[in-house]
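SAMPLE LOG
Freezer: B-3
Tube label: C17
Construct: single chain, 65 aa
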Amino acid sequence: MTPSDHPDNHELDDWPLYGPKDPEIYWLVGQLAQKHGMRLHEIEAIMLAALRRKMAELDDSYPPG
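STRUCTURE (predicted):
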């Protein structure tokens, strides 16, 4: 997933298996799901939208195509 010279290479490659390191992310996801009844796919859509906005802000070639 990441270039071998990236300082977070191993953590980024492990992300799909182990998830985020910040416990607040885990807590927030749990609150949205348990307390507010959101489904995981809805929460992931929020995260994806935020990441896409940031990518578009930083990279003129995004979205590709």
